[in-house]
Specification:
By secondary structure, the protein is of the alpha+beta class. It has eleven helices and four strands, in the order ααααβαβββαααααα. Strands 1-2-4-3 form a four-stranded mixed beta sheet, sandwiched between helices. The longest helix has 41 residues.
Length: 299
């Protein structure tokens, strides 16, 4: 609940700061004089669509993950592997001081696992059938420690917080600039019935441009949190086991069948070169292994 309060409080603080800045620079008075309903209405609009969308995505993340992957939650273990899997997750959760997550298996050929959920005490940890078949128990223990690390660190909520704030800023900035351009193009005419063509074109273009920069920031945080989760896996299962698991993951060759909506929550993601590296949700496995081998040089 503290992270949820932080999520709401931070976004409200951002909106308050934006309101003050807009008032000091006279933007709200100008917007009101142009018939745009004042800056308060625009801030509310940006917050509802920016933060609201991100928050709703987090709230339904477990349900979406189960539906999109076909994950089967283990309610009653049916064999020794499932019993061991549940017991290992329970042990990691206790060591991390969080509630017991739901444990699930989904059918996929590659080695992968993910964690999601709205709070630390209401989360889901899922592993692929390929991971269970191709890794030994020591390596799987490390992977599960990595996923529990994500939950314990509150990465899902923090990622949503960052996404919500950035969404709000993108929507707000695009519309403020759009209105300024529209006013200039129309020679300062009153636009009470809505912006002209200049407004709509500028807003669409800027939302794409600003959205790209926002995606870079989100991806940068996503890469950083993988190093932290690897450190958690090393703590719970041993550094050697975590390194061994990451080395085994290299056999995936970047392949993943996880839907795009939850791909960033997987333990490994696809690689990219050049400019596309800025949008990678995961660091290269070589860098993650090096960080564990040399903790003093961690990102």
């Amino acid at each position: 609940m503290r992270r949820i309060a932080l999520f709401i409080g931070t976004n409200l603080a951002v909106l308050l700061l934006l309101s003050i800045v807009c008032h000091l620079f006279g933007i709200d008075q100008m917007a009101a004089s142009r018939g745009y309903g004042g800056m308060t209405g625009l801030l509310v609009f940006a917050a509802v669509f920016g933060m609201g969308g991100a928050f709703i995505s987090l709230a339904i993340s477990k349900w979406m993950a189960k539906m999109s992957t076909g994950a089967r939650v283990i309610t009653q273990p049916q064999n020794d592997t499932e019993r061991w899997l549940v017991d290992t997750v329970r042990r990691h959760a206790q060591n991390a001081g969080i509630g017991m997550p739901e444990v699930a298996i989904y059918d996929a050929p590659e080695m992968n696992a993910f964690a999601t959920g709205m709070t630390k005490n209401s989360s889901l940890v899922a592993v692929s059938s390929g991971l269970l078949q191709q890794m030994d128990r020591e390596q799987i223990t490390a992977v599960l420690g990595h996923e529990i690390g994500h939950v314990a660190n509150g990465d899902m909520v923090t990622l949503t917080l960052i996404q919500g704030v950035l969404n709000t800023l993108v929507i707000l900035a695009a519309r403020i600039i759009g209105r300024l351009v529209d006013s200039w193009m129309s020679g300062g005419r009153d636009s009470r019935d809505g912006g002209g063509i200049g407004y709509f074109v500028v807003v669409m273009v800027l939302q794409l441009v600003f959205g790209l920069f926002a995606s870079m920031i989100v991806a940068a945080f996503s890469r950083w949190r993988e190093f932290r989760a690897d450190a958690a896996g090393a703590k719970f299962a041993g550094t050697g086991a975590m390194i061994s698991a990451l080395q085994r993951l290299q056999a995936n060759h970047g392949e993943s069948t996880l839907p795009k909506t939850i791909a960033a929550f997987g333990i490994a993601g696809p690689l990219a070169d050049g400019f596309r590296r800025l949008f990678m949700s995961h660091p290269p496995l070589d860098e993650r292994i090096a960080a564990l081998q040399n903790p003093s040089a961690q990102h």
